[in-house]
Amino acid sequence: MGVHLVEITLDVGALMRFLKDARMEPRRDDEDLGYGIHTWLVSAFGPLSPKPWRLFMARRRPAKILGYAPHDAEALREQLNVYATPGAYQVLPHSESSILSKPMPEFTRGRLLAFEVLTVPIARKSSGGEAGDKTIEKDLFLHHVEQNGGKAEASRAELYGRWVKKLLEEREATVVHAARLEGFRLVRQARYTHGKERKRRQIVRPQALIRGELTVNDPEAFSALLAHGIGRHRAFGYGMLLLRPVR
To answer: Using CB atoms within 10 A as the burial measure, which of 35, 66, 113, 232 is most buried?
Structure first.
C-alpha cells in the first residue's frame, strides 16, 4: 500500500469549537493540543487517521497537520464526507483543498538525508508503590540522574541525541551521523478519562526538537520507520520524521 505524506489545513476556530463541545479546550497558553487533535482526527477519519503526525501553528499562517498514513487524500476525504460527525466535518469545510497527499518514494540504500523530529524523551519505570507496581513516565535526563545517584554523567543534549540515534538505527533501518538537540521545553499535556463523566488531568512532560543527518541502510525498514514514527505518544503529535536534503 505504501506510505503517503498527508497535509491537512485546519479551521482553527472550528477546531476550538469542536474541542469545547468535547470539553477539551486548552486552559493554558503552554498546553499542547495533542490529545484534542487526536480526538478530532479519530472523529474525522476513524481508522484512517494519520499517525504519526505533527501540528504546525504560526501567526498569519494557516494551521496545518503533517502526517504519514497508508491512505491517500482521496480515501481520507471519502471517510470524512461519509462518516465524520458534523462538528468534526466543520474543521475542514473545503476538504478538496484542505486535505492533500503525496506518495513517499522508496529511498535507495546509501541515500543521505537530513531529518527533524519532535519527541517526548521519556523513560518508563515501575513506581514500586505499596498498592502494586505501576508504570510511570519520567524525563529521560532526570531518570539518568536518578540512576546515577543524583549525578549527571551526560548532558541533556547528549542523552536525547543518543536516544534518538538508537531509535532510528533499530532494525538497521539507518545509520545516524548526528542527532542534535535544537529545542527543549516543558509542555503541559491534558489527558481525559472515557465515559460520561470525563475527568481531566494535566501532566508536564519534556518536549525536544532533534535535528541531524542519517544514511538509509535498509529501504524497506526505513519506509516502515517513517510509517511508525519514533518514541512514545505518536498519536498525540510526536515522533514524526521530517526529511530534508543535506546542505
So the answer is: 35
What's the 3-state SS for the chain?
Answer: CCCEEEEEEECHHHHHHHHHHCCCCCCCCCECCHHHHHHHHHHHHHHHCCCCEEEEEECCEEEEEEEEECCCHHHHHHHHHHHCCHHHHCCCCCHHHHEEEEECCCCCCCCEEEEEEEECCEEEEECCECCECCEEEEEHHHHHHHHCCCCCCCCHHHHHHHHHHHHHHHHHCEEEEEEEEEEEEEEEEEEECCCCCCCEEEEEEEEEEEEEEEEECCHHHHHHHHHHCCCCCHHHCCCCEEEECCC
Task: Tell which phi-psi region holds residue 121, choosing left (phi > 0), alpha (psi between -120 and 50) or beta.
Answer: beta
Residues 64 and 161 in one domain: no
Which of 73, 103, 133 is where one domain is finished? 103
Rounded CA separation 158/165 (Å)? 10
- Please write the tens of the pLDDT for every residue from 82-106: 999 999 999 998 888 999 999 999 9
Q: Tell me the residue range of the domain where 211 lies.
A: 112-244
Residue 162: CATH number of its domain: 3.30.70.1210
Q: Are residues 14 and 76 in the same domain?
A: yes
207-245 pLDDT, tens digit each: 999 999 999 999 999 999 999 999 999 999 999 999 999
Residue 24 shares a structural domain with residue 60: yes
